[in-house]
C-alpha cells in the first residue's frame, strides 16, 4: 500500500509539473469537488471508516453468479476499494451453472474468500462448516448492524451461530395501476375500499370510458403472476403463503379468506368487469390491450407501467391516457396488503480458511454498506463518474447519461460500473430513477404499500421440495375452475381434502417445525 501511495504522489507531481507552465488556477467546479471529497472523508470517519488502514493490502477472491465484466472504469472502482479498505478483490464470476461450479470449489476445498450466494446455497454449505464464524465479530461493524434488520440475522444462523451477512432488498414490489383519465371522467378518486373498487370496475366497463360509443372496455385485466395481486391484497391471502392466527398456522391456499377472494373474483368475472382472456393473454397481448385503451385497471410489478410508457408506446397510442398508482384498496387493520417478497436477497459469507483476513473482509463489506461505499461500487469514482449536490443528493451519474460520458470528458466503457457491487441499498437506489419519474414513483409506491407477508418466508424442507410443485399446479388449476364457474364452490371442501392428501399437510407441518425451531415458537397447524 505504501508503494502504491508513493507512486500516486509521483504521478501527481508529474502532472503538476506539466500543468505549471499554464494557468494553474483551480476551477470552481474542481474546488467544489475537492470540498465534497473532504466532506465525504469526514462522513466516512463518522461512519467508522478512515480511508483505509494503510497497512498491508490483502488479496481476496470474490465468487458471485454474475455475467458482469471488468472495464477500465471498473478498474478505477477496484482502486478505490483498495484505497479505502486495503482489500484487493480478484473476481471469480460465473454466469451459468452457478450451483454446480460452486459445489466443485467447495468439494475441492478451494472456497473463495468472499462468497455472494443465494440464501439456499448459503444454508446448504454453512451447515457443512464451509464458512468462518462471524458471530462474535459483527458487532464491531456499525454500518453492517445498521444495514441489516435484526430478523435477518436470525435467518442466517446455523446452530445458533452466524456465518454470513444478509443482503437486503425491498419487500414491496407490486402495485395497482389505474387509468387516471378514466377516473377523472367518471368523477372518481382512487378507490379506498372494496366497494369503491367494485363500482370503479363497473363504470370502467359499462360507461364507455374511452368515449368511442362502444361497450369494448374492461374494468380489470392482467397477465402473469401478478394478474390478481390486488384481489389477494383485499382479502389478506396469497396461495403459497402461510399466516398465523391465534397461535395456529393457516394454509392460505385452502383458507376461508382465499375462498372468499376467489368468490369475489368469480363475481367480477361473471359480471363482465374482468377481461375474459385474462387467463390466456400473453405479455404482448396484454400490452396491446393496454395501449389500445381496453383495460382500466391492472396489478403489476412496479416497473411495468414505466416500461409501457417508455418502451411500448402507451402515450403514442393513448395521447390523453394517464397511468396512475396509489395505495391499494385494503383495510390495514385486517392485515390486508400487497404480497411481500422476501427482503433477504442473498448472503455474503467468508471461507473458513480466511482467518488472517477476516477483519479486513468484514471491514470491506462494512464500507460497501455506507452511502459512499455503496455509490462507489454502484456508480464508480466520485468526481469522475458521479457527484452529489450541496444537499447530498445525486447530481450527476454517468450511468444515467445517454452518452455514458464521465465528468472528465471520457466516454465510459460499458453501460454501468457495477462489477464490484454486491449488495443493495434500496433507500438510495431510487436516486438512479430520477430521470424516469414513472419508474421512481412506482418503485416508491410499491416499497411503501401495506404488505401481506408469508409467515414461512425463506424456509424450506424436504417435504416442500417433494410436494410443492404438485400443490402449486393443483392450486392453479382449481383457481381457474372456481373463477370461471367450471367448479362449484359447494365442492370447496373436496378441493381442501385433495390438497391436504397431495402433501399439503406434510409441507405445512415441516415448515412449521422449522419455524418453531428457529424462532422458539409453539405454533400448531389449524384444522
TrEMBL record:
Short name of one Pfam family: SBP_bac_1
UniProt signal peptide: 1-22
The keyword Signal belongs to this UniProt entry's keyword annotation: yes
Keyword Signal: yes
Gene3D superfamilies per record: Periplasmic binding protein-like II
InterPro entries linked to this entry: Bact_solute-bd_prot1, SBP
Region (Disordered): 30-49
Compositional bias ranges of the Basic and acidic residues kind: 30-39
Keywords tagged on the record: Cell membrane, Lipoprotein, Membrane, Palmitate, Signal
Name used for this protein in its record: Extracellular solute-binding protein
Organism: Eisenbergiella massiliensis
Amino acid at each position: 500500500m505504501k508503494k502504491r501511495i508513493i507512486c500516486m504522489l509521483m504521478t501527481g507531481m508529474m502532472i503538476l509539473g506539466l500543468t505549471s507552465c499554464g494557468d494553474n488556477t483551480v476551477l470552481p467546479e474542481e474546488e467544489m469537488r475537492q470540498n465534497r471529497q473532504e466532506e465525504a472523508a469526514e462522513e466516512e470517519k463518522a461512519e467508522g471508516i478512515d480511508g483505509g488502514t494503510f497497512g498491508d493490502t490483502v488479496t481476496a477472491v470474490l465468487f458471485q453468479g454474475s455475467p458482469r465484466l471488468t472495464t477500465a472504469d471498473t478498474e478505477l472502482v477496484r482502486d478505490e476499494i483498495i484505497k479505502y479498505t486495503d482489500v484487493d478483490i480478484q473476481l471469480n464470476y460465473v454466469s451459468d451453472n452457478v450451483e454446480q461450479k460452486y459445489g466443485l470449489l467447495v468439494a475441492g476445498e478451494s472456497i473463495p474468500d468472499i462468497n455472494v450466494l443465494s440464501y439456499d446455497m448459503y444454508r446448504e454449505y454453512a451447515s457443512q462448516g464451509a464458512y468462518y464464524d462471524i458471530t462474535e465479530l459483527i458487532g464491531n461493524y456499525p454500518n453492517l448492524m445498521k444495514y441489516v434488520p435484526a430478523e435477518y440475522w436470525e435467518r442466517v444462523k446455523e446452530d445458533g451461530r452466524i456465518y454470513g451477512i444478509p443482503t437486503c432488498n425491498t419487500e414491496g414490489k407490486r402495485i395497482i395501476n389505474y387509468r387516471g383519465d378514466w377516473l377523472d371522467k367518471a368523477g372518481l378518486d382512487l378507490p379506498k375500499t372494496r366497494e369503491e373498487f367494485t363500482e370503479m370496475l363497473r363504470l370502467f366497463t359499462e360507461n364507455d370510458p374511452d368515449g368511442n360509443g362502444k361497450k369494448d372496455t374492461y374494468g380489470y385485466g392482467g397477465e402473469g403472476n401478478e394478474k390478481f395481486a390486488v384481489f389477494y391484497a383485499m382479502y389478506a391471502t396469497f396461495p403459497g403463503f402461510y399466516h398465523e392466527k391465534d397461535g395456529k398456522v393457516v394454509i392460505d391456499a385452502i383458507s376461508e379468506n382465499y375462498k372468499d377472494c376467489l368468490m369475489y373474483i368469480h363475481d367480477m368475472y361473471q359480471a363482465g368487469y374482468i377481461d375474459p382472456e385474462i387467463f390466456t393473454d400473453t405479455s404482448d397481448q396484454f400490452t396491446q390491450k393496454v395501449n389500445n385503451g381496453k383495460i382500466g385497471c391492472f396489478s403489476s410489478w412496479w416497473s411495468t407501467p414505466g416500461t409501457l410508457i417508455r418502451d411500448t408506446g402507451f402515450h403514442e397510442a393513448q395521447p390523453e391516457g394517464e397511468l396512475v398508482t396509489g395505495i391499494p384498496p385494503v383495510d390495514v387493520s385486517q392485515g390486508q396488503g400487497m404480497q411481500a417478497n422476501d427482503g433477504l436477497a442473498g448472503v455474503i459469507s467468508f471461507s473458513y480458511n480466511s482467518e488472517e483476513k477476516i477483519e479486513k473482509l468484514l471491514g470491506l463489506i462494512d464500507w460497501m454498506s455506507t452511502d459512499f461505499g455503496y455509490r462507489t461500487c454502484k456508480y464508480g469514482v466520485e468526481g469522475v463518474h458521479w457527484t452529489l449536490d450541496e444537499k447530498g443528493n445525486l447530481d450527476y451519474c454517468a450511468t444515467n447519461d445517454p452518452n455514458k460520458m464521465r465528468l472528465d470528458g471520457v466516454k465510459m466503457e460499458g453501460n454501468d460500473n457495477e462489477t464490484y457491487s454486491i449488495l443493495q441499498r434500496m433507500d438510495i437506489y431510487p436516486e438512479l430513477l430520477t430521470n424516469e419519474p414513472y419508474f421512481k414513483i412506482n418503485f416508491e409506491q410499491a416499497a411503501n404499500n401495506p404488505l401481506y407477508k408469508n409467515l414461512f418466508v425463506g424456509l424450506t424442507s424436504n417435504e416442500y421440495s417433494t410436494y410443492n410443485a404438485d400443490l402449486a399446479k393443483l392450486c392453479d388449476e382449481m383457481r381457474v375452475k372456481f373463477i370461471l364457474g367450471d367448479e362449484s364452490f359447494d365442492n370447496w371442501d373436496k378441493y381442501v381434502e385433495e390438497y391436504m392428501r397431495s402433501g399439503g399437510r406434510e409441507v405445512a407441518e415441516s415448515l412449521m417445525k422449522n419455524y418453531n425451531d428457529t424462532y422458539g415458537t409453539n405454533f400448531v397447524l389449524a384444522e
